[in-house]
Amino acid sequence: MSYSVAGKTAIVTGAGSGINLSFATLLLSKGCNVVFADLSLRPEAQAVVDKYSSSSSPRAVFVQTDVTSWPDLERMFQAALVEFGDYDIVCPGAGVYEPHWSNFWIPPGAAASRDHPASGRYALLDINLSHPIRTSQIAISNWLYPRRLEATKLATPEKASPQNPKKIIHIASVASQIPVFRAPLYGASKFAIAGFVRSIAPIETYGITVNAVAPGVVKTPLWTDNREKLANVDVAKDAWVTPEEVAEAMLRCVESEAGGVVLEVGAQRTRRVDVFNDPGPDMSPEAGMYTSNGAVGDAEVHSFLGDKTVWGWRSKL
């Protein structure tokens, strides 16, 4: 825990709301500059950026970013270099939870789907999986082989090393440990993130530490602004995980000298998820790991499967 974020610079995707906004705010409170990379900022995020945009240190800047666009991701990194000269922490945190427009149970070709057969892509996987993988790749490339931007007079950033450590923090999910019938694309993306983090962890020998958090059900607009998701929650019984709890766990991962760590974050509880023989999450309602009314979402899946207009489509080759 010897690493300090004070005086460092972080890039956080999805910082316009939810978990990533809480993490960005926490970093700023610890003296860390933050690049807010998102399509837009919710009012509460705009207030944070406004508060720190005129500060000499730490400072916040907003870079409009479509995380499904690889050129946008490149521009995000370039903006960080222009504004701060270097960056030390990268959080590719932007993610979505199986919205109806990109849902395995509403397949490409169905009228309600925005995943079109001709595109050959699932929007959810572009956001939840391709974006964090590509962002990690760009960060590692720039840290191992730093380049000076010709358009500025800034010095070339120092190469990553154990003496100049760099940090990547990903967001997996409790859904990377347990199956969720109503959200298989989301589950697949989070299983993949956990596996990706563990797989590239040996890069810590180069001074780059890669870790992840695996939150339970977090009270963010991703849930509270969507009735079809909120219907799965028993508000009288189910505990919520707060975004602040997740942000604190993310900071612990950044401060850690160990790589390949996945920290599960529940309601007022955090634990390390073991690679082998892990006992699994606490499934009691007070743990904040699942929603008691999940049968509502499962029933909706069965209604989709019984609808010929959804699953009776045929590709036109």
Automatic annotation (TrEMBL):
Key words of the record: NADP, Oxidoreductase
Highest taxon, organism lineage: Eukaryota
InterPro entries recorded: NAD(P)-bd_dom_sf, Sc_DH/Rdtase_CS, SDR_fam
One Pfam family named in its UniProt record: adh_short
Assigned GO CC terms: cytoplasm
Entry keyword Oxidoreductase: yes
GO MF annotation: an example: oxidoreductase activity, acting on the CH-OH group of donors, NAD or NADP as acceptor
Family: Belongs to the short-chain dehydrogenases/reductases (SDR) family.
PANTHER family assigned to the protein according to its UniProt record, in alphabetical order: 15-HYDROXYPROSTAGLANDIN DEHYDROGENASE [NAD(+)]
Protein's name in the database: Uncharacterized protein
Species per Swiss-Prot/TrEMBL record: Emericellopsis atlantica
Organism phylogeny: Eukaryota, Fungi, Dikarya, Ascomycota, Pezizomycotina
